[in-house]
Amino acid sequence: MIKMPHVIPSYSRFPVTFVRGEGVTLWDDQGKSYLDFLSGIGVNNLGHCHPKVVAAIREQVGQLIHTCNLYRIPLQEEVAKALTESCFAEQVFFCNSGAEANEAAIKLARKTMHERKQSHRYEIITANNGFHGRTLATLTATAQDKVQRGFAPLPSGFKYVPFNNAQAVEQAVGEHTAAILVEPIQGESGVVIPDPDYLPALRDIADRHDLLLIFDEVQTGMGRTGRFWCHQHSGITPDIMTSAKALASGIPMGACLTTAKVATAFSPGSHGSTFGGNPLACSAALATLSVIGSDGFLQSVTAKGEYLLQGLKHITAKHKMVIDTRGCGLMAGIQLNSPAEETVSICLSRGLLVSCQMGTIVRMLPPLIVEREDIDRALTIFGDVLNDLF
Is 71 helix (H, G, I), strand (E, B) or coil? Predict the structure, then answer.
């Protein structure tokens, strides 16, 4: 792993330095090209340097980069309008990351109960092996010991249950429960896809107990699964939803979306963000949203996702060390019965970027603009790596 002596070593970095990107391709400082099937961990949904996003950023950076939220920001209104037109939400809070968006969602849930004169309701139910961020509140919401280790005492007010188990959620609801917070598909845990009735069951539980239902769509949103938002496959809506990663194609941006009714809990001073929704980020987000929302785009994601998954299943069916091959849209997980780090490292050496999740799972998150010939190349590399290793 590479070392950067003046940077705090909070990451294990592969020994490669990327200097240029275009579409699904990255080039390192030695001139070698790589097929990017990780998309900067689900950030570059439109690939690298999408021309519409680049043009929007170039125009905006020459006009106005930042003003604070003490003043009207017209681009912010445009992005909020585009987001609300894509889903259930009616109002948006802007920030800089998924962790900040989830922090806002947690605060909004508690503040809602406070406004209802129910301040005793503050607990958030989350799922084991979910991932919601690395701030103190969001790492506590993240029910993984490896994320929480060393940061005690953790904030109180979180309760954990198994993922894809609505009965466990029902049993966890108590007098202090304010909300349920889950990912529609667990991304960092290796593309763990729940049963089709899971999210509707959570909606039913939330309704019966007068709770808020929060969906973390930081990784699954922005077209990743073939719908604008992953929960739209289920036919139900949350009360609050979070987004980030691909929202501005690499310019830091996050968003907490909700209904007008729930949004009333936040008044001036309740929450804030210095950089959230600034003109530069909004210009990138608006361009990104326009591409994802264009005619036929999401349908193409679905078709290419099916093509990728079929290809992966064809390859992995030949190998007994593969326990499961799963996916939804253009996110896929290949679960091995042995550590996946070597598989990922060899893929990198052969020009394919993928990631290792939970020790034994290879995750693929290709850009949504990937073409079938790119998928074919990735399948060839991945299949050859499996053949050589196993």
Answer: coil
